[in-house]
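=== How it folds ===
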Amino acid sequence: LSAHSFVGVGLAAHLVPLLRERGLDEVSVLWLAALHGPFQVAARGCLFALGPRARMAVVGMICTVLMPAAMVWLAVVPSTFGWILVFTMGWAVADGLMSIVRAGAPAEFLGREGYGAVTGALAMASAPMRAFAPLIVALAWQWGDSYTPALWMLAVVGLLALLGFVMAVLDRRPAPV
């Protein structure tokens, strides 16, 4: 969850200059940035429609696969609105659904006992990642003199999020009935 937060916050802080650097016109940059929210809400609406059939382990796996895939996609596709719109959708879906997983997975994986303490500890672990992500992405941008190294770094951190989530799914205790 912390690694996923790092990617989401680090990218959000740098999205506009990153898209400008890719050569997109200002209108396209603003549309792509603005569509993040509606795509998040649409993904959450789909999850809501699934109701109790949706398992946090499955939704979390989707999120943790989509996030690094979106970073790689953005790093390699041509700089046109259509290609980058696919990135925006993938990133927004991963980002939007992970906020639900962050709240629901602890209860599904560990049960409801101590839920507040567990989610508090998870939030505390994620706080430094959210705080330092924009700075670290800026340093990667400065080091590489473009956002390309930063995108690959975010993809690697996203893969670490995937690995961590897979380990959590495999290690989870069944919730008490």
Q: What stands out?
A: The mean pLDDT is 91. The two ends are 26 Å apart (CA to CA).
